[in-house]
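User: Please fill in residues for this 108-position structure.
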């Protein structure tokens, strides 16, 4: 809320906002509102913000980015495991066929 749209609270209403928030009375609706400092949010500045200065959209974007990076790492790991397994299996088959070649009995 913008402070220009209200009149500063007086008397008992001045203590309405918590944690250093500034109280304003909206003349058009006769309601009380708070302008919170950087570290708090909520209708009465009652909620501490964990990520300072970050909006909810920025927080959601950060979470999405972290999930995508984690998925990308997981996919790369799965591809590396797959090709390593495939190479080991091919090496084992080559070794097995080489042994079988030398065990062939000649015909008489």
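Assistant: Residues filled in for all 108 positions:
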């Amino acid at each position: 809320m913008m402070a220009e749209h209200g009149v500063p609270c007086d008397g008992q209403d001045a203590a309405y906002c918590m944690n250093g928030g500034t109280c304003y009375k909206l003349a058009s609706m006769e309601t009380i509102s708070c302008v919170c400092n950087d570290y708090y949010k909520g209708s009465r500045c009652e909620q501490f913000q964990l990520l300072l200065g970050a909006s909810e959209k920025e927080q959601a974007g950060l979470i999405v980015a972290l999930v995508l990076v984690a998925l990308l790492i997981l996919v790369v790991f799965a591809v590396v495991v797959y090709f390593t397994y495939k190479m080991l299996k091919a090496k084992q088959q080559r070794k097995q066929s080489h042994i079988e070649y030398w065990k062939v009995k000649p015909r008489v």
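For context: The mean pLDDT is 84.
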